[in-house]
Amino acid sequence: MKKSKAKIIVPLLVTAGISGCGKAVEQNPNIIIIYADDIGFGDFSCNGATAISTPNVDRLAEEGIRFTNAHSTSSVSTPSRYGLLTGQYPWRKEGTGIAAGNAGMIIRPEQYTMADMLHDAGYVTGAVGKWHLGLGDKTGTQDWNGTVTPGLKDIGFDYSYIMAATGDRVPCVFIENGKVDGLDPSDPIEVSYEKPFEGEPTGKDNPELLKMHPSHGHDQAIVNGISRIGYMKGGKAALWKDEDIADTITEKALGFISENKDRPFFLYLGTNDIHVPRVPHERFAGKSGMGARGDALLSFDETVGRVTAHLEDLGILDNTLIILSSDNGPVVDDGYADMAWELLGSHKPWGEFRGGKYSAFEAGTRVPMIVCWSQTEKGKVSDALLSHIDIFASLAELTGAELPEGSAPDSRSALKTLLGEDECGRDYIIEQNLNSTLSVLDSQGWKYIMPSRGAAVEKYTKTELGNSMQEQLYRISGDDMYEDTDLTAGHPDEAARLRTILENEMKK
Ligand code: NG6
Ligand code: CA
């Protein structure tokens, strides 16, 4: 049971006066968070990419605010999503690292989530797409053939249609309100992260069955000609086809929007694009000229376009606040031989930042972010320091929800920043890498990375993780956004100032 619930809101009457470009709306706006997977700052044309074009994302930027200094809470998925949905930094809680597909629920039913808050504020709440925050009570105990419980309804989502974890992890099925969609009861599903099922082929032993080969890991159960992490058997009728995942997710999202068009809704839309395995629909295959990674970006862009067009068709675009961002920075080869490096050409998924997915360096968490709503100034670019940790409290302020004591402990409202009325943003934010090395980045661009025993380079992807036994200090500003000059020795006061901030945060 939750300790307490938010009070019913006083609906916010938004008027055109706020920033002058929209119509007056008389109910709380619908809220859609489009949370991309592994899309880097430099992957969208509105952020400077020239080798790829993302017109639908660019249109949201033209109609809204594009942020250049926005950060996920972590450089991998599970902790980032945990931080976003709970308003608590993931490094405060054990067990928030990259989750297996049979992990138990990481956000526990007694925790107060963003979905709880918006539900209590009168919203219909839905989650569609990638989940990756565990399901059921305990790891490995889920009843995949019955109802997986506890589930998303226990943490505030009225509706859910989700992938348990990632495209590369079993079980490779969609789960609707706790039940595997399309399951034939005479062909039950079994899932194991410990041992293979006798008689079932694996990527390791049966590479001849693969249409896409792993480059590292990913050599266990074979589904749709692609080997995954983890073992599964059965459930044939329910297995996803990777080529159709984006369409399935998009259509479920559109369905949720249609169904709830007449009342305020909150949709958490986690795309599978552009996580591995990247197997976009044939209408994108070969279209980017950059291989599967680029094609998946085009697929993501189409999802954004379809959502926007649908809102427009229903006449509710003006009254819908869209937040588009990514769970972590980019990776090129993340475990499948999909030619991503060979075909990357001049494209820089990480923009001008160092590192990438998994890293403590900026590209790990400095993600693309756009906020679009009829009430915001069109085409604004904001350099304000912003963290996804603050979206929770910002939406509480927007909707007038009161948070129960102790909920979203690290979240501070950044509503004015999100709506473009404040250009300063946070004084500082905390970032986290794969092995939980923490960094502090302040609004002046000073960045301190704590000492860490973690590896300097991620062994599979070759990403620089930003780990060092020595503390590191960088200045990220102006025309020098690349963390390559350690300033610790020359600026001991700055290093000490940021170290103290971090130590104080860690004591909370
Ligand atoms: C890693 C996987 C990688 C990806 C990542 C999670 C291997 C070798 N690598 O362990 O492919 O699945 O986990 O990505 O298995 S995330 O974006 O969901 O955090
Ligand atoms: Ca991710």
TrEMBL record:
Residues 29-401 form the Sulfatase N-terminal domain. InterPro entries: Alkaline_phosphatase_core_sf, GAG_Ulvan_Degrading_Sulfatases, Sulfatase_CS, Sulfatase_N. Keywords: Hydrolase. The modification 3-oxoalanine (Ser) is found at S77. The conversion to 3-oxoalanine (also known as C-formylglycine, FGly), of a serine or cysteine residue in prokaryotes and of a cysteine residue in eukaryotes, is critical for catalytic activity. The keyword Hydrolase applies. Pfam families: Sulfatase. Belongs to the sulfatase family. PANTHER family: N-ACETYLGALACTOSAMINE-6-O-SULFATASE (PTHR43751:SF6), SULFATASE (PTHR43751). This is Sulfatase-like hydrolase/transferase. It comes from Candidatus Cryptobacteroides merdavium.
